[in-house]
Amino acid sequence: AKSIINVYSNIKKEAFSKFGKEIGTYEYFGVKIVFIIEGSQNLLFLFILGLADDFESFKPQMKRFKKEFLNTFGENIKDSNFILTSELLDPFIDSIQRSFKAKIAVVGLSGVGKTTIIQLIKAEDIPIYHVPTITGKVATIKLENIFLFLWDFAGQDQFDYLYENFMKGSDAVLLMTDSTLENLEKSKKFLKIATIAAPHARLAVIANKQDLPDAIKIEEIENLMKQKAYPMVGNDPKNRDKMIRILADLLDMNPDLSPLLKPILKREFLINKGQNALEQGKLEEAREAFEKVYNICLEIGDESLAIEYQNKTEKLKSMLK
């Protein structure tokens, strides 16, 4: 196998050759190394993508990165004393990360809590009783630039081809179960479909309803499903932060540092802060917190929650007059 140094040398040689390409890609083990050059300054920019990531759709981001980088540092990099630190580079990297749209397919049999989990993440009201989702309904939910696609139907064998099309191109597949043995056995088919439809996707099992007496322990579920499993009680709003961190873990993101997740975690903190202030009769403090929640929701594209907290903010404003 070629070492990363050899790969770098090959890319550099190819990129700066007489007939070299300005933009290109190179597969190395489980990743794509993509590059763009600036010939006039002998600069080579390298990016690491997953095998499931679309190179063509990433090209505009590479070009934008190069343009902004040169506009900011173009003159400085000619200085032999110039040092490019992570503090200087991080804003550019964050900008690219924010443009990524990770597709997370949430699958499972009817009644296991797929819709409840989505509502948990979105901070929407969680139903006390199960209301079956209409067969074939697809919901698209945007959290920052993370898209969750939910296709909730009973899961009969004749619909397997729909799940294959649905999972195709996913960065991650979450298999929802209700933590019972019967459900786990029936749900194994989704893992088989995922390996065909999304061979490079991360797979994980969400063991929902862990609060019920017949719930199988998480260690047994992992042994049975041969996949990483996470315990969950989806109808408890307190688990919202936990679910967000599961997504971060699955996508190899640091939930405390990632520009994708920072606004979501901050929003959760402000929601709790505002609610506590409201319970203590501190209306102005609650208004300020809810207004910040509203602004974050607008920033990350969560329109339904933005409207909810806009209404709460306006109501508190009228009460304070």
Automatic annotation (TrEMBL):
SMART domains attached here?
A: ARF (SM00177), RAB (SM00175), RAS (SM00173)
Recall the GO molecular function terms of this protein's record.
GTP binding; GTPase activity
- Which UniProt keywords are present, listed alphabetically? GTP-binding, Nucleotide-binding
The signal peptide, as residue positions, is none
Q: Which InterPro entries match?
A: P-loop_NTPase, Small_GTP-bd, Small_GTPase_ARF, Small_GTPase_ARF/SAR
PANTHER family referenced in this protein's UniProt entry, alphabetically = ADP RIBOSYLATION FACTOR-RELATED
Q: What is this protein called?
A: GTP-binding protein
Q: What is the source species?
A: marine sediment metagenome
Taxonomic lineage of the native organism: unclassified sequences, metagenomes, ecological metagenomes
